[in-house]
Design goal:
CATH architecture: 2-Layer Sandwich
CATH topology: Histidine-containing Protein, Chain: A
Order of helices and strands: HHEEHE
Helix content: 40-55%
Number of helices: 3
CATH class: Alpha Beta
Shape: elongated
Length: 105
């Protein structure tokens, strides 16, 4: 009887371990990491849109594993640099990859 309980107990822990390990998406991100990246993404977008007179509407923001990727177009190299600075000031940002193009379309 005791051996049977031991097997059941071990089985439950094994099932729990498999369940926890399966909580990652196909991208390898856990649910918490996905939520963290979403918060970072929204915070960067908010910071860009509330920053003075600059026109940040042509910037797309994507975040994965704490790395923020900026794509789109800005009017000057100063605006490009400013976008990187603003994004890096957001809590949780580990790196900023700035792929912004300078100039008018």
């Amino acid at each position: 009887m005791r051996d049977r309980r031991w097997v059941q107990w071990c089985g439950r822990w094994l099932a729990l371990a498999v369940l926890v390990a399966g909580c990652q998406t196909a991208t390898g991100k856990t649910a918490q990491r996905t939520a963290d990246d979403a918060v970072i993404n929204a915070s960067v977008q908010s910071k860009l849109t509330t920053d003075g007179p600059a026109n940040w509407t042509r910037i797309d923001v994507a975040t994965q594993h704490g790395t923020v990727r900026l794509t789109g177009r800005v009017d000057s190299t100063n605006a490009r640099t400013r976008a990187t600075t603003l994004a890096s000031e957001v809590p949780g940002v580990q790196d900023v990859v700035n792929q912004l193009e300078v100039g008018t379309p």
